[in-house]
Amino acid sequence: GVGMGNRTQASQASQWSAPAVKEKIDPIALELYQHDYFRIAQVRQSGRAESFIDRSLWTRLRSLGPDSSTRDAGPGFRSGGEVMLFHCSRYNDIKEAIREAFDTKFEDIPRFVMWQSQQLLTFAPKAAFPKFVARCLLPIDNEKERQHCEKVEQFLAELDTLIPNIRPFQRDGIAFALRKGGRALIGDEMGLGKTLQALAVAAFYSNQWPLLVICPSSIRFQWRDQASQWLKHLVRECDVCLVKNSKTVVPDDAKIVVISYDLISRDNNDPLRTRPNGEKYKVVIADECHYLKDRNSKRSRVVVEICQNARHALLLSGTPALNKPIELFPQLSALLPNFSTYNEFGDRYCMKEQNRWSRRIEYTRSKHTTELNLFLTNTVMIRRLKKDVQKELPDKLRTKVPCEIDAKSLRNIQMAMREANIEDELRAAGDLDDPEMSNKMGNPAMAEMYRMTGEAKIKAAEDYIDMLLEGECEKLIVFGHHHAVLDGIEKKCIKTLKMEGYIRVDGTVSSKAREDRIKKFRTDSKCKVALLSMTACGTGLNLTEAGTVVFAELYWVPGTILQAEDRSHRMGSEHTTISVYYLIAEHTMDEAIWEVLQKKWQTVTSTLDGRAETIEARVGETVKARQPSRGPAAAAAGGDSPRLPPRLRVFLSSAVAPPNEPR
Prior knowledge:
alpha/beta; Rossmann fold; globular; Helicase_ATP-bd
């Protein structure tokens, strides 16, 4: 009930008296929970901040008269528990009242969160920022800012003339980025036109060009084509320089320079990181910015510095955080230099745990996701979901298709696990009951089991693809991860569809050949199947001609899976439904990987969208692959697939990182 504090605060406070001896309680975490309200949580021994607080603390907070309340059913909290909220203007008063009654420590709302709240700004430490950062972090109201807003409104009024048929939500995204001074993270779901929005924002600053576009190598040509398509009044195709290798010389009159993450971060490529005259780029776009998730990589260090030095920087990604909140830090640092230290951000929004294999302490999982979502959306991020803004998009229907694999393959997978003695190692470590162990895929045995599971499904995948093609499916996309799996399915395609009936694109295909093959799939009615690598082709491709997507293998990162799905599910599709089929080998790692995907997607969505969601899928009919000939020994063993041992299932369900394997 909003406003309850105004009616009862005085009477309740008068009924409470300070104890003679302060009670010692777990540390207190103050968390921004709504735009002008904060909550009180307790940091338990696990490190997680919980809404379920000690009764004595609850009684004291109730006596102070909360200004509002809500129910919290988010991840990590006891479902349905009441959360008392206090207006931010009472921040210090509430802290002092708790300090009078209890012996405890406080974890304050971070300074960078306080800076973007008008109510908390008075409690925040002072800091000096460049003007372009201050516009994102601090509430500003002066004559210069009003003049900037007038220019933005004039540009938006002319936008329909410059870019016909622009959607209202795209206009909103452009307006958001411009009001933030051209420093923003456009995090719209895949297929909602982030490229168009970024180009429109960049056009506003065309007097500060050349524009630098940094993107995955596979989509450089798309940026060239879309720039000349959407910005005809500013750019011709000859004005766009595609940097194809380290020897490329950027013309002095180039208006747009497009370069890959790989090329710009290579050693001795310093000249490609500046304008032809040696000056720093003033306008920069970094597409698929989740490529910057590892702050220690050369790629991240180089690109983050370029963005920090630019006056206007736009980051684009449908999945800015693929696994956990700490992946957002390099991206936020690119837009908001020195807004926080790495450890300050990680300690606030992640848990610290030891990597079982490397023995290093790492930031994993998440906490305070509601506050982080508020910080992101109040400062630099705008994110829209398809279901909210694109009612005309086709429905996406996911189906889990159980696959039976032969008993011999399943026994081999389990034997590999036993030979690695992984169960004994975990039992000795005492972690078998802990479902949050990290980075299991750093272990070679796990990577081997992952490969074996994929290869065991090849026959089932072939049969399922045959069934779809025999039905009403005109074009379909098949995703895999391991080359051996793609090779096996390709042999079947050659046999049944011939060379003209399919394409294959993986990390070994050159950019030119990739472009030609994708064009063939989109325009040639005889080309029925696109066989693609998830990691090499999961982003940047528009394949709306296909209404069916099949995953012959799973992957450990939910963002990779969803990016791949949306090669087909995007604007321009004429299908009424996009059917997505996940082939799940029964009683194998697949079942555990699916559980991992659900947990990690809940973490990501609670951070980016402010609410935890799951990857919903119905269960289809079981696919029975053609079985190999059975000798007497196999027949005696029986045909039923053995189930995974319980301890092995616990181990697999905790895996959270992909294998270190090339594309």
